[in-house]
């Protein structure tokens, strides 16, 4: 299986089977153990990965850079705005040339609906090197793999079936956050036996194509998939809550208009009262960065249900697993 994954792109979790994703999770568990015990694990000696960013990052960039170093390789950071991409160089030319210099290409291109995923797939079409999605307009598969690892650690890998995950929109004034995290969660979690309740105000619908696939995944897995417009209803008896903000698909080019609409929903916040609606041993998750005091209160994000730092740490172990298996 490890050999089978060499050269395989990771652009959406949907492109990988459950067995392949489980292998990535098991590999991440192993790498985490070795990291904690300071056991060297240079599985990618002298290999290079190119990290191409069209947007800002803290966790993704640093987990990939630290991760490839720990695996014995090296990362090149590329800011699209200071490369020839900003002068219009095509994804085909960029992809062919970078892949002739190294062993993998990872890309973040997440801010414009309809662009990032298409860009990555165009690069992937022209290279045999693996292309890893560090977040696009549709999915954030590195984040959701780390989320799944964290949920497995909390509840046990044979004890996820029937768990209720509430994926909820929450108010944030900072910026129109991409739709890729809630979409990625909606796609992935049903495949691992979880019941999904998706909550959002009417304007914040996820992409139609993603919803169709997510609901089909739930049907095939025999789990529930419900959409509500009430955060309280979503939190009721939830095992996992994942409240976060996202933008309106049709308004990413006019962010001020989207932020104005979002002000109607300032009460969509994860606070202690809402956490009181969930199961006693429920977990609070967020991909980060969080808008503290808006998406979530300090009492919740710093409180006993919160698992955010373990979740963020798992970004390192899962991206190392993806690189080790595909490069
Ligand atoms: N969650 C996440 O992707 O974080 P960054 O934007 O900091 O990479």
Percent in strands: 5-15%
Could you give the count of β-strands? 9
Q: How is the main sheet built?
A: 5 strands, parallel
Quaternary structure: single chain
Tell me what the CATH architecture of the largest domain is.
3-Layer(aba) Sandwich
Shape: globular
Structural class: alpha/beta
- The CATH topology of the largest domain: Rossmann fold
What is the CATH first-level class name of the largest domain? Alpha Beta
Structural domain count:
2
> How far from one another are the termini?
14 Å
Strand order of the largest sheet: 7-6-5-8-9
Specify the number of helices.
13
Report mean pLDDT, rounded to a whole number: 97
Low-confidence stretches: none
Bound small molecules, by name, code or SMILES, are:
phosphoric acid mono(formamide)ester
State the fourth-level CATH superfamily of the largest domain: Aspartate/ornithine carbamoyltransferase
Classify the helix fraction into a percent range.
Answer: 40-55%
Q: Give helix and strand order, one letter per element, not per position.
A: HHEHEHEHEHEHEHEHEHHEHH
* Radius of gyration over C-alpha positions, nearest whole angstrom: 19 Å
What is the topology?
Elements: H1 2-5, H2 18-36, E1 48-53, H3 59-70, E2 74-79, H4 91-101, E3 104-109, H5 116-125, E4 131-136, H6 141-155, E5 164-169, H7 180-188, E6 195-199, H8 208-221, E7 225-228, H9 231-235, E8 240-244, H10 255-262, H11 272-275, E9 283-284, H12 298-301, H13 308-326
Parallel strand pairs: 1-2, 1-3, 3-4, 5-6, 5-8, 6-7, 8-9
The chain binds phosphoric acid mono(formamide)ester (CP).
